[in-house]
Specification:
Layout: H1 3-15, E1 18-23, H2 28-31, E2 36-38, H3 40-49, E3 54-58, H4 61-70, E4 75-77, H5 92-104, E5 112-117, H6 122-130, E6 134-136, H7 141-149, E7 154-158, H8 161-171, E8 175-177, E9 189-191, H9 204-213, E10 218-221, H10 227-231, E11 235-236, H11 239-248, E12 255-258, H12 261-267, E13 272-274, H13 290-301, H14 313-328
Parallel strand pairs: 1-2, 1-3, 3-4, 5-6, 5-7, 7-9, 8-9, 10-11, 10-12, 12-13
Helix pairs in contact: 1-13, 3-4, 4-14, 6-14
The chain binds 1,3-dihydroxyacetonephosphate and iron/sulfur cluster (SF4).
Length: 329
């Protein structure tokens, strides 16, 4: 890795009124440049408290959008406009079709409370906000769903089917997947059929392989994994929760981890393994390189910022309503 490029990035960071933000799934060399690092909830919260004029966000599109939604006065630049493949599975019209599917199944529209996983675009968040709903992340999904259920409504959960089903199982609730599985009219949580292609890689066979190989091994997975995989794990949590869980384990405890490769690789030692026979890399998270980060910072210095996040004001206002409801909880 070019030390020269790293030095140039550090020099630009010193000269500019900028904060570099990086998600755990970024490549190591990019992650190490982050002034703020963390999971999606931490990044949303900590960037809100940050005072720099520019945020350079190393992650995927919905994360940069969340900063812009919450802090419109900030200029949010993304070294690469990479889009999470799950977030791309739903847009405003698919969201409306999902509401219609519930109405067709006999649910009164006033009895639907939508919740969108933060891995969705601003348009979807805005539609959720307008219908009285809110955003959740993988670290707070259970708390958000518990609060939502107090309204006595049926939950439309988008876009991640697995996260919705996993929470339903944890809470002893009934779930259905629109157009795929289950009875919408009798379910408590009705999920859109979106998923993360990276987390679908982990299988029950992988878990059995590790359990047979190492007696007493712990299996840790992200809640975007299939419910059958989560059911067989010892711990299910967001990226930050996974890191904290592993740090608390005895040094000699073996553990196999089912989440994105860059994060697991940073934790890897003689007792920590990747829970997959194929490399579980998120292609879009991996798009951002050090050179892209340098180019983004240089474009700010040259007064011609590249890849700036812009959101139509009406969409932003309603998306903020949905995000604020989450942050209040
Ligand atoms: P976290 O909320 O755990 O950061 O996860 C984001 C994500 O995209 C997982 O695939
Ligand atoms: Fe999206 Fe999956 Fe990548 Fe996370 S790991 S950013 S959910 S594609």
């Amino acid at each position: 890795m070019s030390q020269n490029l790293i030095n140039q990035i550090n020099d630009l960071k010193k000269r500019l009124d900028v904060t570099v933000v990086a998600h755990f799934y970024q490549r190591d060399e990019v992650f190490e440049m982050g002034d703020i690092t963390g999971d999606s909830l931490e990044l949303a919260k900590r960037t809100l408290e940050d005072s720099s004029k520019f945020v350079v966000f190393c992650g995927v599109g919905f994360m940069g959008q969340s900063v812009k939604i919450l802090s419109p006065h900030k200029r949010v630049i993304m070294p690469k406009l990479a889009c999470c493949s799950m977030a791309r599975m739903i847009d405003g019209s698919y969201f409306e079709e999902s509401v219609e599917a519930m109405v067709t199944a006999g649910v009164d529209i006033d009895n639907i409370l939508p919740i969108t996983y933060i891995n969705s675009n601003a348009e979807v968040k805005a539609k959720v906000g307008k219908m009285g709903g809110m955003v959740c992340t993988s670290s707070n999904a259970k708390i958000i769903i518990e609060a939502a259920l107090k309204e006595g409504k049926k939950i439309l959960f988008v876009p991640d089917r697995c996260l919705g089903q996993n929470i339903a199982i944890q809470m002893g609730l009934k779930s259905a997947v629109i157009g795929i599985d289950g009875d919408i009219a009798s379910a408590d949580i009705i999920c859109f059929d979106g998923f993360c292609s990276v987390h679908q890689l982990f299988s029950v066979d992988d878990i059995e392989f590790y359990r047979q190989k190492y007696d007493g091994i712990k299996i840790v997975v992200h809640p975007e994994c299939d419910p059958a995989v989560c059911a067989k794990a010892d711990f299910v949590g967001s990226t930050s929760q996974i890191i904290s869980y592993i740090k608390e384990l005895d040094e000699e405890q073996k553990v196999a981890v089912g989440t994105e490769f860059n994060l697991v690789n940073r934790l890897r030692d003689k007792n920590t393994f990747v829970l997959s026979s194929t490399k579980p890399e998120c292609p879009t998270m991996n798009e951002t390189t050090l050179q892209d980060l340098y180019d983004a910072l240089k474009s700010i210095e040259d007064n011609n910022p590249i890849n700036e996040i812009e959101i139509d004001e009406q969409t932003r206002i309603w998306a903020k309503v949905a995000l604020d409801r989450m942050l209040e909880l």
